[in-house]
Amino acid sequence: MIFFTGCPLHCRYCQNRQISGSDGMDIGIEVSDEDLMRLMLSLEEDGAATLNLVTGTHFIPSIIRAIKEARARGFSLPVVWNSSGYERVEALAEIDGYIDIYLLDCKTLSHRTASIFCGRETYADAIVPVLEAVKAWHPRTDLERMKGTILRHLVFPGEIEATKDFLRLFGARYKDSFFLSLMTQFVPPLGNPGFKPMTEEEYDSLVDLLEVYGIDDGFIQDPSDDDILWIPDFTKDVPFPASFADPDPFFLSLKHR
The pTM is what? Predict the structure, then answer.
């Protein structure tokens, strides 16, 4: 994974708030296009399975230049575009030819929910054109061949009805094209501002809806997995739990040079 700093969305409860700009922190390092290219090559040399580009929307020109040069030097990893989905179709069209797997969020279709959790209600308007474009470009998902789209949806506390609306749309429009990742890992990064956790009955109602809408390709998170620390600490060389991943030596050399 390569995490890019800054984010066009600035979700109020962003789990990557230290690098997203959501709370004014300024953690990250400046790299050149050549540095980025060499980091891509280094990840492949270290045995990475994919190149996972996280929140790279506002760096698309640099990312394209880096991938082109890396491929000219033998780079062959499948490329994952990991984003909130809050981006222009025109921007995605520029980089689509370099992407193998889309790992996109569909956070909500509700303007009210978006205004609370995503920082701006216009997210609900922007996401559907992106989904339609990606569906047209990649109408089938074949993860064994590293092709297609995984669509993530995080259940926000107190917003079960908004999630049900999303599942209804997914079942009607996208279940035959995308894999679904239904996540329950919401953790307020700045403490607990009074959100109530999902109940077992609410979770069961969502599982039932997957069957009702014929959604059977994908993944669903068990809310009982509450012992996993999902919020990274980017002030450390290893931001995630040690079992998640090893830091790339070339990145560390960039960070500490």
Answer: 0.92
